[in-house]
Each structure stands twice: as C-alpha cells, then as structure tokens.
Amino acid sequence: MQTLYDVLVWVHVASWAVVLLGYLKDVRGPKVNQWMAQGITAAFVLGLVLVGIASMSDDVADPNNAKVGVKLLIAFVAVGLAHSTRKKPAPNPIAHVIAALVLVNVALAYLW
User: Fold this and answer.
1) Helix, coil or strand: residue 99
2) Looking at beta carbons, which pairs linking 16-23 to residues 24 or more positions away fall under 8 Å?
3) What is the DSSP letter of 85?
4) Among 9, 105, 109, which Cα is nearest to 57's?
5) Is 96 helix (H, G, I), strand (E, B) or coil?
6) CA neighbours within 13 Å on the CB side: how many for 39?
7) Is the pLDDT of residue 80 over 90?
8) % of residues, the chain, pLDDT over 90
9) Using omega within 30 degrees of 0 as the cis cutoff, is the peptide bond preceding 93 cis?
10) What gap in Å lies between CA 49 and CA 26, rounded to an integer?
11) Residue pair 71/50 in contact by the 8 Å Cβ criterion
12) Cα distances (angstroms) measured from residue 91 to each of 31, 74, 87, 98
C-alpha cells in the first residue's frame, strides 16, 4: 500500500505542475486553458484519494484533518473557477487567481 501511496503522491504533484505550466504557457495573454482545468481536476481527485488511503491504511500516517480541510476548500474553489471560466477568451484575469490559489495550496502542503 505504501508504494501505491507514493506513486499517487508523485502523480498528484505532477498534476499541480501541469496546472502551473499551463498558466505559464499563456501568461502574457492569460486565459484558463485545458491544461489548467484538467490538471487541477486531476490534482483535486488524487488529493481526495490520497486522504482516503491515508485514513484507511496502517502503513501511512494519519492526515492532519485541519490541513486537509483548508487545502480541500482552496482546491475546490480553484477547480470551480477553472471550469467555469475555461471558455472565456484571453485576457482572462481569473487565470492569475487560479495560479495564486495553486501556489498557496502547494505552500500549505510543504510548510504546514
């Protein structure tokens, strides 16, 4: 179970990287592109799966529920913004907000 968990953690981190790379791709004329929307959805779903595995498994440390709740709320808002504004033409300033939420979420993951 630990190996599966570790692989999913790396895929989760890669999903957040896809979101940020999608943002950097269109940073001059910001827009929410498909990379951002699908990467953030994958990261959100994988985060839920990781919390479920950590809660059920004896091999993985129990998650910090306060941290998970804050990160879940931030990710949920980012997913909603990404999918609701994906079709809007550039420039779309919501792309900056989504990128900032992703950076806050990543910072919380490593600093909390």
Assistant:
1) helix
2) 16/43, 16/102, 16/105, 16/106, 18/42, 19/43, 19/98, 19/99, 19/102, 20/99, 20/102, 20/103, 23/95, 23/98, 23/99, 23/102
3) S
4) 9
5) helix
6) 19
7) yes
8) 76
9) no
10) 30
11) no
12) 6, 23, 11, 14
| Helices and strands in the chain: count of H runs, count of E runs | 4, 0
**Single-letter residue type at 96:** H
Q: Which two tokens stand for residue 21?
A: 């790379």
- Sign of the dihedral defined by the CA atoms of residues 74, 17, 41, 2, in that order: negative
23: its two tokens:
């943002």
Please give the pLDDT value at position 72: 95
User: Tokens 């592109």 sit at which residue?
Assistant: 33
47: number of CA atoms within 13 Å, CB side?
A: 25
pTM of the model: 0.90
User: DSSP states of 27-79 as a string?
Assistant: SSS----HHHHHHHHHHHHHHHHHHHHHHH-SSSPPP-HHHHHHHHHHHHHHH
